[in-house]
Batch of 3 targets.
Target 1
Amino acid sequence: MSRTNGTATLEPTRTAPIAPTAASSTEEPRLFQRVREQMDRAAEAVGLAPEVRKILAAPACEIAVNFPVRMDDGRIEMFSGYRVQHNNVLGPFKGGIRYHQDVSIDEVRALAAWMTIKCALVDIPFGGGKGGVQVDPATLSRREVERMTRRFVYALGANIGPGYDVPAPDVNTDSRTMAWVVDTYAATLPPQERYRALAVVTGKPVSAGGSVGREKATGQGVVDLIEMWAADKNCKLRDLTCTVQGFGKVGAWAARILKDKGAKLLAVQDVTGAIRAPGADGLDADALAEHVKKTGGVAGFTGAKAIPLGEFFGVQADVFIPAALENQVTGRTTRQLNVRLVAEGANGPTTPEGDAVLRERGIDVLPDVLCNAGGVVVSYFEWLQNRGGAAWNAAEVDQRLRDILERAYARVKGMVAEKSLDWRTAAYAVALRRIEQVYAERGIFP
Ligand code: GLU
């Protein structure tokens, strides 16, 4: 590698990939184990080559960094961050960076593996990666978040790069965060090479090299997929009612686009509370998004009545969109659900027990790796535009996204029919077959 991080103490630690059977018993929940079990189920169903299963059972590379950040009052605080690079046989590692107090190496591993599956499923030339810093950003000032972001990028050093590992926004990070990543990364390159810094992350502000349509892309994809599901049930989006958990980038955009298409938003829940529409017309998703922007949560929104959390999960609607964190659709909450479809905007919202209850109750699922893939698909478009010096318009982005998602939906539907599988297992099976194909053609070095 030609670049260094400056001080030796800041060099990222590359840990050896964990052994396929390794278990770190202290980490709860064991999210990566869950992903492996999901992959195993799909691998069995399609008779996947055993070596592919073995390769995907552990991330290719894990980077753990501890780095200092100066706080506004002059103190120095240490932060822990991770970047897990799960697999790159299809292309550069790709996946977001999240800031959350619950970030752990186990969670980041799982999220990275989901990116591998997601990119293979929608057939874009990226592998899977994910990063995170263990911090509640609400406890930091904007300047502190900026300094923390810059130090994290500096600590990652040459472990990220436009043709190697390309981060993006995730929970509690956004286009502004990505602008800091580009700026910091560019500063580490010789001046003559800085032109290529733009493609080191996606999800940038449009004015700073981002793509039109990237901010709403995950929500747009969720809506596109719900529309495909609805068409299979002979209904239209305007006939549907929905409930949404989480009103951040994904939940709010999905709700706003659904509103434009005539669907009714009946209830919303986030960390600040749960609210329900007072009448049959539903909540005004645009006004709610404004309220959340100003106050930080859905609680206190004047156009709604507050309800207890228990009541939220039981609200009768056609579609429930979990768009917050993992492990929300559990055995218990799934028994309360009164919906026909769970459209997973979040990554890993459904626990294995929740999945079993969904199957038992005959509730359809659009699994995360399909349902929320719109984000990374438009990230791919952004990366292409950056590398080609191009700027696509909104209609072009939306249409290309729709085409890719329609093809992925059809592949999963075909697999469901061919192998009599549930949608999650079928989605994994399609992705694993795609990866298997490349290993079969390329072989394993040496
Ligand atoms: N964080 C998003 C996801 O989980 C987007 C990743 C990306 O665009 O690279 O899919």
Target 2
Amino acid sequence: MTQYSTDLHDLTVAQLATQLRSRKVSAVEVAQHFLARAKDSSLGAFLDLSEEVTLAKARAADARLAAGSAGVLEGVPIAHKDIFVTRDFVSTAGSKMLAGYRSPFDASVVSRLAAAGAVTLGKLNCDEFAMGSANENSAYGPVKNPWDTARTPGGSSGGSAAAVAARLTPAATGTDTGGSIRQPASFCGVTGIKPTYGRASRYGMVAFASSLDQAGPLARTAQDCALLLSSMCGPDPDRDSTSLDVPAEDFSLQLGDAIDGLRIGVPAEFFGEGLADDVRAAVDAALKQYMALGAKLVPISLPRTELSIPVYYIIAPAEASSNLSRFDGVKFGHRAANYTDLTDMYLQTRAEGFGDEVKRRIMIGTYVLSHGYYDAYYLQAQKIRRMIADDFQAAFKVCDVIAGPVAPTVAWKLGGHGNDPLADYLADIFTLPASLAGLPGMSLPVGFGADQMPVGLQLIGNHLTEARLLNVAHRFQQATDWHNAKPVV
Ligand code: GLN
């Protein structure tokens, strides 16, 4: 049963699925292999593991493989960002507020992947309620970047990116509200995609900013992301009213198509002051590679790029302040032990349960939504949000996809931004615009910058063009080897 050609953890999802289907290896063997790696790791990527639960799921997968009723991902281990609620594992969303919380149901994305045969390996660390860019806002400690354990893996899906990069899991789910799949993928040298807003159901994703939150996969290759995303997406009208009424799609269908004549828009605003030289060099080299593959570079402008920071940091906290009002010590999660009356119970519970960044955002959000400030901040931000979306539509008249850096620098040192939340916010500048416009965006590894830290290229497509976007990344990965580089951990 064990004639796999290479270490199991070096196989891609596609390769693993093939080995499992041809029964060269069993789902239980695969699960045991990854469980052992996850347990041994000191990166802090996993928040919950259960050998018993995972092996039971693997045995069920083996039974389906034996019976010939296997799904496309049958037996492939997948770990979930702790923002997704799961019945069989604790779901904390990186917060003390939900310490030890067990959900009575699985998130739609989790149950869809399970229906395709994926075996849940465990839950992955993330910033508290997905608020952050460095995983340092997790109540359960930061995750370490496997390329340099003194550095951040990025955030908020830092556990997902680190676990995939360190081969603790073949793939992981993440969520992206303002960059939380793309930026950690870039910082850890893996591939990740955030689909069009509404593609994947938000049911069972602990809500941060509902008009922005989207689920997506992180894996080593675009091909694997296509495979996973195909199982994750599709309408969910009864449970998420913002899920798009477009049928589930096979995002692998365009993989391998030629990209001759593809028009790649290069936004001037993504290459200005503030972009570190090492990131610029790796991104420029990737663009040259695309030209060698037959693509044409088209200079474009996204003139309101800078405004995406104030706009996002008004809209996201506004929605968060409303979403997080449910954590009041009554329905679920933490409740303070000592209080005098009901109001005091709310106050003590929330003071104890939430971390500093979450409190900061609840205060900002409440402020910008309050009478007298709503027009000046929230409404204004919504108007500019629309203009940012319009700028993309103007750009897509002259190009097919947009390419640029994911972040201005490579992963910084843990603690490197000190106590300065603005430094984190500013580093989101290149991922926020696509989020505000609801567009699909991805990151693929395209080289290394200073201190041998990975650099990702961001690709942004128009609404519902994920299949093309994934092929554009796939063509690059067929011609280069960056996605195969692995950290020594
Ligand atoms: N870094 C951004 C924030 O802190 C984005 C987070 C995300 O996409 N979840 O809000």
Target 3
Amino acid sequence: MTIVVAIDGPSGAGKSSTARAVATRAKWNYLDTGALYRGITWLALSEGISDPHKLVEALIDHPLIFTPDPKSPTLVCGNVDITEAIRSTAVTDMVSEISAHAPVRRALFDVQIGIIKDAHSGIVVEGRDIGTIVAPDAQLKIYLTADLEARALRRAAELDQDQLPSSEPEVAAQIEKRDEQDSTRDVSPLAIAEDAIMIDSTELSLAETSQRIWEILKGRRLLGLPIVALLGRPNVGKSTLINRFLGRREAIVEDTPGVTRDRVTYECEWNGKDFILMDTGGWEAKPDGISVGVSAGAESAMQEADVLAFVIDAQVGALDEDEVLVQELRKMKKPIVLIANKVDGPREEADAHALWNLGLGEPQFVSALHGLGSGDLLDRITKVLPEIGAAQSQDGFRRVALIGRPNVGKSSLLNILAGANRSLVDDVAGTTRDPVDELITLGGSIWRFIDTAGIRKRANQQSGTDYYATLRTQVALERAEVAVVVLDASVPISEQDLRIITMVEEAGKALILVMNKWDLVDEDRQITLDREIDRQLNQVEWAQRVNLAAKTGWHRDRLAPALRTALTSWERRVPTSRLNSFLGTLIAATPPPVRGGKQPKILYATQASIAPPRFVIFTTGFLEGSYRRFIERRLREEFGFPGTPVQVSVRVRERE
Ligand code: DC
């Protein structure tokens, strides 16, 4: 499946440089659709043709051939290389007018579709109407913009010295006019696709802008890099190993205590091979004495990964929990690399040989602490690594978990949502539990609803213990990006409802609360419900609520906009400069409370990750929980994160 990234936006927003940077990094193709419009404008000028139909006919003898190489895109018309010529002032002045003609757009539409179809693994396409008209099914749509002044400055700097006009106000006037023409024309004007991510590059460098897109691609698993899952009990030294793998390029950021660690991914490179290392965090082996294997995080990591790297503390040896995990790992039928960590000397090495008994082949000895053996280990991992990750076959549809306690109406909601729109059911390969996802069209986009077979089954036969229901919910949550938690609005909010909501929060997923059975809510109930919401749901005040009646379908159209808003917040990134100027003002007005006679100083903050937004504040001392929550609240007020949890953690730096 070809990944298409659409980048639209006004002139000078940095589309070309960004698109080329992303395409180069991903080894994908690149299509500059503006170049095609410039090309046909060049043809009009050089042949002296003004009639759009005649112009399109002229394309037969003078076809436009674009080479979609991000490193050196070229455009040939007939047999003339016009790569440079299309940047002339004459072409620039005419292009908006020419590109507004419907026959011209139709002809170039076909050219664009042809280039997109020919791309193998992926293509970044930039223009004005890519996300809306040319590639409405693009897996990622970006709307890149910037202030007029910033755009004019960039364009003026780009223009040749001898090209006029080149002063910034003149360029500003020129692009403003072009934007106006491009956005007000009748046929496919410059427009923001509903599901586009808006990036304002006014204060961002090219590197920051492309990194932002890269991070989203990575988060949505659209990059196609193979995944190595790092599995093992807590404290076997996984984090030290990761630091070794990364060569300390990226420090590991501690998570807020009490927040379950989601799978954290790192990009690694070894001998020219790129891969994603997925840290699964801790796991419990035998909860409640039931002999089931692994935590949800580890389980879904195992399913997504291409290679399973299993770490054992050689100084402790293989424990019962490890044996349970070995069985789970085997079921995956994927390459397994057994890592004996903490082999810090000859004595440990002798003990570590016992790990042959696990039947996973030769244990790879490493001392993460001393860095011994990590090169050999990486060699071994990269040897079994496939070229392209299996998870890339993910289609890029946003993943939704529909969850809630029994009898709240999940299956009727699913039915009414799917209804006639039930596009197709596909089995997700390689899963042990055989979950079935469903692709559902809502509000103009396709969404992947996760493990809906479970919902159907659960509706009529309350199979399994609470434990299994919880586990299943957790696995669905791990795979999802956003959770729709269904509540029965006609009865009091229960403990179980709250537990499920907490699970979503802890998994770090976006959240929507559906108040179902609204048809049964009368005035009295509404009053008590308001009170319950105030008291019990205040911890997730940020979640959007959708009042809905699954039975009749009332308000079901409210779900898609809510999903979009929540996902937008979930992937939002606040530029470091804005974050720190905001924080500076906030601290000046309300400094952190004094503790033990000392006032902790806040040094700076950074957004460590998106999905969900995670902020790390570097300080000289401990910050009270209440002050952290205060910061979180103000962050939300300032930047707005409706629908997503926001995590704020603190790292104390020793004073130099
Ligand atoms: O991106 P650019 O400045 O090279 O684009 C040149 C012109 O082409 C722009 O003013 C509008 C037009 N264009 C368009 O109409 N649709 C596109 N998809 C791309 C460009």
